[in-house]
Amino acid sequence: MGSDDETARLSDALGAQAAAAGAALDALAAATRGELAAGAVIGGRFEVLRTLGAGGMGVVYAAYDPTLDRRVAVKVVRAVGAAADGGARLIREARAVATVSHANVIVVYDVGSTADGVFIAMEYLDGGTLREWLATPRPRAAIVARFLEAGSGLAAAHAAGLVHRDFKPDNVLLGRDGRVRVADFGLARRAGSGDDVVDAAASPDGLDPATRLTQAGAIVGTPAYMSPEQLAGAELDARSDQFAFAVALYQALYREHPFAAVGVRSAPVVRPPPAGADVPERLRAVLVRALAADRAARFPSMAALLAALDDRPRRRRRWVALAAVAAIGGAVAGALAFGGHRAPAAWAWSTRRTIRRST
């Protein structure tokens, strides 16, 4: 019996030593990559569980918030050297998302500083990205439904005066509940606040310009989804996001990019549908309009685009109502900007009547 007990104790000790050695190796590997090891604490509060992903601008961790007993995602950017702009973008992202409260926009819980950078703690979603979801063939109705949710999040951002500037399937996250959230507002700008200098002509790092996230101070956005005005460095508005949204939905439905040449400044021409494509002409016409090179030819708002996409009568009426409100809001803003006149009282009544009829 004593021999068996001694063997068990020795086995347990060896197992503990192996586990400690494994943890030490994991920590060393993480440190080599510039990542935090499991157990590290961010911002004095969030305990790192594992690394979710890493890129040139920072690292995203799954973490635990003991204060509120919940799992969160924490994005950390070192604000040193070439990554300094990433820290500024992270702060901008937190501020941008904080102005939007919508079921289809990711929730930000906290933002703060670390020893050598900044972090943003946000809703943890473990359903993958929209791109990953689309990797498996899906029914057309399911694809459109997912994009209607994502478009709803974009419309909410637009209503808050934000232009996302980097909408793509990678920046749409899914939860276990199936609901989608638009994320990664690090490039968002207030509409009409100007834009960064754009130069999509070259790719000095040798990466594919169709998928490469443009470098800080050069291009802002992902060329494969950028509108002609974004590629040209013009001032952007909500219709620029609409173009990116339409590119992503076109790709999801047709399994190919809408344009033969990607990331060029000349007016793009939507390619003919591939043989055997199961996309109704009505739906294609909506996409072609949203992909117009001239933004004036696109839909006046995301809400108007969503109304055209949604073939469910009740939901369609709701989008039409929201589009009407957006149009009236723009007219009121214009009237106030050019003379300070009060909007006619009848507008308020017609708006209320339109909304009531839509619900």
Number of strands: 10
Proportion of helical residues: 40-55%
Shape: globular
Amount of beta strand: 5-15%
Distance between the termini: 77 Å
User: H/E order of the elements?
Assistant: HEEEEHEEHHEEEEHHHHHH
* Main sheet attributes: strand count, strand direction, barrel closure: 6 strands, antiparallel
Strand order of the largest sheet: 1-2-3-4-6-5
What is the topology?
Blueprint: H1 2-32, E1 41-42, E2 46-55, E3 58-65, E4 70-78, H2 84-98, E5 108-113, E6 117-123, H3 130-134, H4 140-159, E7 162-163, E8 172-174, E9 180-182, E10 189-190, H5 228-231, H6 238-254, H7 281-290, H8 302-309, H9 313-337, H10 345-358
Walk me through what this model shows.
This protein is an alpha+beta fold. Helix content is 42%, strand content 14%. It has helices at 2-32, 84-98, 130-134, 140-159, 228-231, 238-254, 281-290, 302-309, 313-337, 345-358, and strands spanning 41-42, 46-55, 58-65, 70-78, 108-113, 117-123, 162-163, 172-174, 180-182, 189-190. It has a 6-stranded antiparallel β-sheet with strand order 1-2-3-4-6-5, covered by helices on one side. A two-stranded antiparallel sheet has the order 7-10. It has a two-stranded antiparallel sheet with strand order 8-9. Strand 3 (58-65) and strand 4 form a beta hairpin. The longest helix is centred in the N-terminal third of the chain and has 31 residues, at 2-32. The protein is globular. The termini are far apart. Mean pLDDT is 75; it is low at 18-33, 194-218 and 328-359.
